[in-house]
Amino acid sequence: MCIRDRSRDIVSHETGHAIVDSIAPDLLDAATPQSLAIHETIADLTAMLMAVNSHNLRKYILAEGRGSIKPEKGHNPFAEIAEEFGGALGHSHGLRTLLNDKNLNLQDKENYVGNSGPHDLSLALSGALFDLLYEIHESLKQEYVSKGKYAGSKNPYFTVSGYALHKASRRFKRMVFRALDYLPPGEVSFIDYGRALIAVDRIAFPADSRMRDWLCKNFLDRFIIRDKSILEEDDDLVYTRLEEMDMDSFRKSDWKAYDFANRNRRFLGIPSEAVFEVRPRLVAEKKYDWDQTGKECIFKVAWEEIEKNPLGERYPQERKITVGTTLVIDWKTRRILTRLTNAPPRRDAEGYSCHEEEKRLNEYRDQRKSRDLFLKDLVHKGILLLGRLGLDPEGKPLQSVVAADVAGGVMSLKRTANMLYLTEEDYG
Fold this sequence. Notes:
Blueprint: H1 8-23, H2 33-52, H3 55-64, E1 80-81, H4 83-88, E2 96-97, H5 118-146, H6 156-159, H7 161-182, H8 190-204, H9 210-221, H10 247-252, H11 254-263, H12 265-268, E3 276-278, E4 282-287, E5 293-308, E6 318-330, E7 336-341, H13 354-380, E8 384-386, E9 402-407, E10 410-414, H14 424-427
Helix pairs in contact: 1-2, 2-5, 5-7, 5-9, 7-8, 8-9
C-alpha cells in the first residue's frame, strides 16, 4: 500500500498555526527561539492528530506496527510531516518527523538542536510529545486487555489498538491544546509549556499521575529539563483573598480585574513600577474522562521587561520583551488551581521559595542567552531589519523579514513568526 496523497497535513499544519495565533497571540512577536518552536510543534501535532483521525491510515499503521504507532520497520506516516513537500526538498520522507531523538544535549553532536532555527528546535519538543502519545496508547491497550476487552480475539492487543488510539489521542489532544490556554503571556520556553501541560493533567486527573510522570521522563531524556522538580508547580496553592470574589463581575469588568492585579502585584510577580495590561478573562467549560466537567476562569496579566540587546552598534542597546502571569481559577470554589509565570524572579514576590527563585532566574538567563544568539543570527543573515527597512515601497510589512521598532532607544520585535514560513533555502 502506497500512501502519497497527504497534502492535507500541510493544510492542517497551517490550521494549527492559526489555532496558536488565536490562543497565544504573543508568540507572533516572540524573540525567544523556543516560543517559535512551540508554535511549530503545535502545528506539527495538529497535522499528526488529523492523520490519526483518518480511518484508513490508522488501520494501515496499526497493521504495520502490529497494534503500535511505532512500526519497527519502514517510515511512519503518523509521524511524518509534509511528505510531498519534504520530497521536493530532497528529504527521504517528510519535511520533518516526530519520531526522532532530537534533544538539547550539547554532548550529542548528532541530535543536538539547541542553537538551531525554530523548525529544527521544535523537533525536541514534538518528539517528546509524540513519545507521550505512544506511552498513553500502550498503557490504554494494557488496561483494556486486562479488563477482558476483546478477550476472544487471537491477538487482543492488536484488536484493541484502534479503540485505545482513539481514546489516547483524545486525552493527548486535550492536554496539548489546553496547555496553550494556561501559558503565561509573552515569551515562553519549553519549560513554561511543560508546566502548563503538567497543570492541565493534574487538574483533570489529580489521582492519576502517569501522564505527568511520562512527560517529565521524556523532558529529562531530551535534556529539556535537568531535574524533575523544574516542572513542579504549586499543587496546594490556596489564595484566600479570592474567597469573596464575585466571579461573574471579575470576568466582565476590566476595572475589577485591574484592581485585583494592582492589589496583588507581589503574588503575580508584577514589579511595583511596571505598567501592566490585564487580558480579557477566559471562561472555559472543560470536559474530562468519565463525563466529568469543570468550569474555569483563566486570568492573565502582562507587562514589559527591559533587557540588554548586544547586537552591535547599529542596533539599540536595549530591547523589551513581554512577560506575565496566568492564574487558573475554579469558577465554583474560587480556588486558584495553578499560577504560572515567565517573569524574572523578584525577591519581594509572594509565595515563592528561594529554590524556586533560583530556578526561575536560571531559566530567564538561559532564555535571554538564546534570544541573543537567535537575534544575532538574524542580523547576520540580513533578516532582522529596523523601522521602515522592514516595509515594502507601499509601506506594508515585508513577509520575508523580521521587523523591529525602536522607541526611546529600546527595540521591540514584530512578526518574528515570519520565521516559521521561510523555507530551508531562505533561512538554512
